[in-house]
Predict the structure.
Amino acid sequence: MDTKNKLLTSAERLFDQQGFNATSMDQLTEAAQMSSRTLYKHAGGKTGLVKQVLSARDKRFLQMIDVQSIDDLFEALKTWTRTEGARGCLFLRAYGETGSNTPEITDIVLSHKAAFHAQVARLVTGTIGPDHPNLGTLTAQILVLIEGSTAAAIYQGEDAITAAHQAASTLIAQASA
């Protein structure tokens, strides 16, 4: 693994486990087994490192949810929870910790959430059609179910995602009737 990937992997793990603010630069250099000079060379500072970690995670997540149906989306979310852990959305945690006072972080979080919303909208459109009068409402409802199940998975595990999937299926069946 090259230096940059080693840094991003170590930083993501620490940020995910401890939070962004609670993770010190010393902890990051120790976890990545590199000097602070090397860390700053590759990341430019903590904000730059958070930005790079979120960008890498965004790419992985969007690839994971590049699916063809709502059912597949919920299965992908279960897989994500199994492989990445169930500690809530790292993007929302970053946004919450920075209080939206760091524009670089805010931009990445909002961009990620917009891409996620677009994917859910695409899947809902494929399920009920582009002219359905409740398309926007149903998309918003499913998005809230997903976000809520991601948070509830912290203490309920995959069962939270399964419950959200069942609720989404009910909403889709009602919209399709």
About this structure: The chain has a mean pLDDT of 93. The first helix runs from residue 3 to 18. Residues 54-176 form one domain.
